[in-house]
Amino acid sequence: NLLKIFLFTAILLTPWLLLNLTPIHTQDVLLLVALGIFPTAIAYWLWYEAAARIPAIAAALLFNLAVVFTFVNASIFLNETMSTQLIVGPVAITAGVTLAKMKTADS
């Protein structure tokens, strides 16, 4: 199913590629293929494999935590400065996920 989505996207974007006047280099294509295979396709595949093994509510709640991990990784690996807004957002998301998880555990 995920492969169909990727193929549909490739077909949909092909006309734009053909109309683009910017020259395409072999290195560009290789980097795009590597980017599509390793961090994107494998990550989605692992996510769906993991989501199939846990309850749907847990998968949905964990999906919301992706934003928190994005902020943390940006501050660690990209040296992004964490402003008050960038701290309050992940804290609010984590609190919401925790409350939702507690509510589902009670019922």
- List low-pLDDT spans: none
What is the overall pLDDT average?
83
Structural class: mainly alpha
Q: In one word, what is the shape? A: extended
Model description:
- The protein is an all-alpha fold.
- The chain is about 85% helix and about 0% strand.
- It is built from five helices and no strands.
- The protein has helices at about 1-20, 25-55, 55-65, 65-75, 85-105.
- Helix 3 (about 55-65) runs antiparallel to helix 5 (about 85-105).
- The chain is extended and about 55 Å long.
- The model has no long low-confidence stretch (mean pLDDT about 85).
What's the quick description here?
This protein has five helices and no strands. It has about 110 residues and is mostly helical.
Keywords:
single chain; 107 residues; mainly alpha; extended
Question: What is the fold's blueprint, element by element?
Answer:
Blueprint: H1 2-19, H2 26-53, H3 56-64, H4 66-77, H5 84-106
Helix pairs in contact: 3-5
